């Protein structure tokens, strides 16, 4: 007996929100600095440890793939493991800050790293499981779940302001304990359902269809974004009292709980298979291997292949008639193992696109305070810049999930063309940022925030489509290193060193840089990298568009012959 896919999807939403708690460091960092007596470099190093979980993405990825045939135990183990890591890591940092335990600095940093690793465990459990549950809606899966990950820090900020301000250490304890309570409620709901459910093909109204439910999930995320944007903007002019902050906190929590309504009318908590022979056999498809006839289209144009697996007979041989139209994982798309991905040119072209695009976003986000100050503004005034960056980041995640998915279903537009668009937008936004003034910095931050979120939505979906769902967890785990590496190279190495050089040239005794040249060279280099990456992304689009042509034909057959014949 399996749990309904939509109950699993709701559980995944809350796990993503818990994963985003590691990005709330700024809310309790002053309390940690006071408790430990840290210098600023020590505090920043600890903060870096608390957001460096991406380096551990290979652990849940390989583990999930090893357990991929355990449709219940695998996802639940990964999610529970992540919640436990989060609790132990953050709880020990809190206990040390309160003086209950005495830890050397390096041990404290190790616990911070352990806590931050939770985000990749929870992301793997949520994204991979839901992507396998809804293989025909991969863009919507990525867009909705990444959107809630994007708003998680904003939600936590509202809770801090409404219930804990200014007690940062009590809030840190809340951050440590919350995922344990969420795990108790959500982990039992996680499972991969290896067949199509009856609610996916029979429904009374469009809003009860799979697409309608995803739209409702987008609407909840969008409502939270708009609510937070309005309340934050008003607070810039009229500061709220504590009771008003509590009211705002309750309001955003109620909005979040609307996502609990999305499974209504989908058949109850227990999954019900669709009454079609095609769907009954989907589990055997996964066990027996995937059809990879179109994998050769990912090779070079002379017909060389980069080595996708070829196991089992074709879909037509296994399932006659319309049975091959089922949206089972792997059908009609290539299947790559991780070693095959690591020698695939397509894989590294996508990896580099994500590294550059997300590296540009991290550079803007991590340096907004200093950029405002360098261009003549008050560093304390960075709040509105960060707010709008993160808001557009979430909007980009929603648009990057929904628009490519709809165009693929409606017109067969290859999703890889949106990687080209994202690279071009990054190039333009970085170029404008290199020559911006304080007046236009907000527009640059919003543009980079939007394309930053766009990349986050594209990453899991393109990885699953171009390299398959069968080994998706491990393939996505290595792909997940791209934003981490990009942030380090572009923000820490490039922008940090250029800023220090320009600060020295300005003869400031504290090394502070003032002027439009503080970040100009950094963003010019990033713009040049993005321009080159646009060419590489276009090449990736050319090499893979035939794969999407075949996928579009399969989607149309499924929608016309299966969904069209079963709608009521």
UniProtKB/TrEMBL annotation:
NFD4 C-terminal domain location: 342-548
Region: Disordered, residue numbers: 272-332
UniProt keyword Transmembrane helix present: yes
Residues annotated as domain Nodulin-like: 5-263
Pfam families assigned: NFD4_C, Nodulin-like
Membrane topology: Multi-pass membrane protein
Membrane-traversing stretches: 6-28, 77-97, 103-122, 169-193, 214-235, 247-265, 345-364, 384-404, 416-434, 440-458, 478-499, 519-541
Keywords per UniProt: Membrane, Transmembrane, Transmembrane helix
One GO CC term, this protein: membrane
Compartmental location: Membrane
Main subcellular location of this protein, as a coarse class: membrane
Entries under PANTHER family matching the protein: RIBOSOMAL RNA-PROCESSING PROTEIN 12-LIKE CONSERVED DOMAIN-CONTAINING PROTEIN (PTHR21576:SF158), UNCHARACTERIZED NODULIN-LIKE PROTEIN (PTHR21576)
Name recorded for this polypeptide: MFS general substrate transporter
Originating organism: Coccomyxa subellipsoidea (strain C-169) (Green microalga)
């Amino acid at each position: 007996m399996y749990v309904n896919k939509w109950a699993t999807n709701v559980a995944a939403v809350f796990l993503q929100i818990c994963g985003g708690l590691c990005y709330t460091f700024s809310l309790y960092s002053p309390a940690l600095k006071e408790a430990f007596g840290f210098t600023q470099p020590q505090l920043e190093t600890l903060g870096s440890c608390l957001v460096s979980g991406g380096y551990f993405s290979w652990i849940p990825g390989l583990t999930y793939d090893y357990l991929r045939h355990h449709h219940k135990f695998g996802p639940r183990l990964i999610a529970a493991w992540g919640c436990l890591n989060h609790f132990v890591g953050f709880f020990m940092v809190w206990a040390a800050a309160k003086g209950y335990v005495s830890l050397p600095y390096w041990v404290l940093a190790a616990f911070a790293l352990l806590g931050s690793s939770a985000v990749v465990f929870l992301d793997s459990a949520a994204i991979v499981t839901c992507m396998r549950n809804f293989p025909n809606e991969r863009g919507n899966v990525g867009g909705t779940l990444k959107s809630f990950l994007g708003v998680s820090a904003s939600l936590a900020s509202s809770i801090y302001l409404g219930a804990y301000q200014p007690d940062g250490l009590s809030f840190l304890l809340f951050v440590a304990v919350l995922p344990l309570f969420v795990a108790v409620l959500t982990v039992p709901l996680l499972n991969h359902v290896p067949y199509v459910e009856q609610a996916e093909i029979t429904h009374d109204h469009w809003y009860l269809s799979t697409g309608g439910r995803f739209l409702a999930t987008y609407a909840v995320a969008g409502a939270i974004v708009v609510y937070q944007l309005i309340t934050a903007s008003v607070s810039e002019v009229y500061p709220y009292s504590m009771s008003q902050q509590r009211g705002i906190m309750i309001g955003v929590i109620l909005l979040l709980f609307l996502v609990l309504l999305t499974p209504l009318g989908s058949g109850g908590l227990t999954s019900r298979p669709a009454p079609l022979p095609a769907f009954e056999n989907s589990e055997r498809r996964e066990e027996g291997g995937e059809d990879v006839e179109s994998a050769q289209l990912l090779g070079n144009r002379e017909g060389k292949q980069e080595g996708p697996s070829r196991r089992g007979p074709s879909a037509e041989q296994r399932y006659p008639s319309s049975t091959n139209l089922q949206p089972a994982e792997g059908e009609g798309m290539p299947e790559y193992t991780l070693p095959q991905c690591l020698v695939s040119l397509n894989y590294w072209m996508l990896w580099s696109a994500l590294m550059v695009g997300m590296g540009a976003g991290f550079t803007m986000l991590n340096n907004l305070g200093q950029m405002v100050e360098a261009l003549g503004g008050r560093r304390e005034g960075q709040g509105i810049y960060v707010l709008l960056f993160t808001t557009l980041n979430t909007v980009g995640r929603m648009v990057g999930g929904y628009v490519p998915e709809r165009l693929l279903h409606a017109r067969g537009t290859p999703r890889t063309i949106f990687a080209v668009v994202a690279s071009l937008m990054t190039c333009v936004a970085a170029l404008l940022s290199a020559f911006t003034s304080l007046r236009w910095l907000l527009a640059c931050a919003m543009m980079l925030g939007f394309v930053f979120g766009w990349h986050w939505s594209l990453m899991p979906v393109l990885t699953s489509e171009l390299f398959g769902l069968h080994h998706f967890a491990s393939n996505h785990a290595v792909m997940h290193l791209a934003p981490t590496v990009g942030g380090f190279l572009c923000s820490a190495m490039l922008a940090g060193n250029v800023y220090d050089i320009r600060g020295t040239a300005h003869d400031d005794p504290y090394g502070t840089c003032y002027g439009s040249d503080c970040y100009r060279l950094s963003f010019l280099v990033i713009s040049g990298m993005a321009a080159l990456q646009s060419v590489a992304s276009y090449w990736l689009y050319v090499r893979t568009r035939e794969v999407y042509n075949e996928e579009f034909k399969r989607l149309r057959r499924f929608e016309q012959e299966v969904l069209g014949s079963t709608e009521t």
